[in-house]
Amino acid sequence: MLDQDIKKVLISHEEIVAAAEKLGQTLTQEYQDKNPIFVGILKGSIPFMAELINHVDAHLETDYMAVSSYQGGTASTGELTVVKDLTADIENRHVVIIEDIIDSGLTLDVLKRMFLERKPASLKIVTLLDKPEGRQVEIDADYSCFTIPNEFVVGFGLDYQENYRNLPYIGILKEEVYQ
């Protein structure tokens, strides 16, 4: 049923799993014996973070932060609302922010500054998808699985009005669905 709203599958489930496995191996080497905190940005990061940490062979903790900047639309408003803050103290800890997508960069720019004020030992950004054409601020991920074109995508955690998160792939949403 959901597939009928998808114009094109951009990244298959198998490609996502393979990218998460490869990145997990890299993060295993980088964070061995550092006990990092992987912070998922809710809600979109959940499927990617779950897949990624399955491939990290090192002690790690998880925490979550819920923020909103889309207010139901297809583009960030630039206004960030913290719905749920971290429960862990990140001072002097190695922190890895897990994002589903970096588009405008507005949300991540505010989050990065917010995290740095809390004085972590290190701060890295990991994203499943990078959409550089959508960038409105200068920010990059330390690790990115896929660079995508400037299309409105859903699936594997990404949504349109809270729908489509459960698709097992990343797909381009048909324009008639959101216009």
Automatic annotation (TrEMBL):
Q: Which domain of life is it from?
A: Bacteria
Q: What is its EC number?
A: 2.4.2.8
The subcellular location is: Cytoplasm
Subcellular location, principal: cytoplasm
| Keyword entries, A-Z | Cytoplasm, Glycosyltransferase, Magnesium, Metal-binding, Nucleotide-binding, Purine salvage, Transferase
Q: Name one GO molecular function term.
A: magnesium ion binding
Which GO cellular component term is one of those annotated? Answer: cytosol
The record's catalysed reaction(s) read: IMP + diphosphate = hypoxanthine + 5-phospho-alpha-D-ribose 1-diphosphate; GMP + diphosphate = guanine + 5-phospho-alpha-D-ribose 1-diphosphate
Q: Could you tell me which InterPro entries the record lists for this protein?
A: HGPRT (IPR050408), Hxn_phspho_trans (IPR005904), PRTase-like (IPR029057), PRTase_dom (IPR000836)
Which co-factors does it depend on? Mg(2+)
Q: Which residues form the Phosphoribosyltransferase domain?
A: 13-161
Q: In the UniProt record, does the keyword Magnesium occur?
A: yes
| Biological processes annotated in GO | GMP salvage; guanine salvage; hypoxanthine metabolic process; IMP salvage; purine ribonucleoside salvage
What does the protein in this record do? Purine salvage pathway enzyme that catalyzes the transfer of the ribosyl-5-phosphate group from 5-phospho-alpha-D-ribose 1-diphosphate (PRPP) to the N9 position of the 6-oxopurines hypoxanthine and guanine to form the corresponding ribonucleotides IMP (inosine 5'-monophosphate) and GMP (guanosine 5'-monophosphate), with the release of PPi.
Q: Family per UniProt?
A: Belongs to the purine/pyrimidine phosphoribosyltransferase family.
Q: What is this protein called?
A: Hypoxanthine phosphoribosyltransferase
Gene name per UniProt: hpt
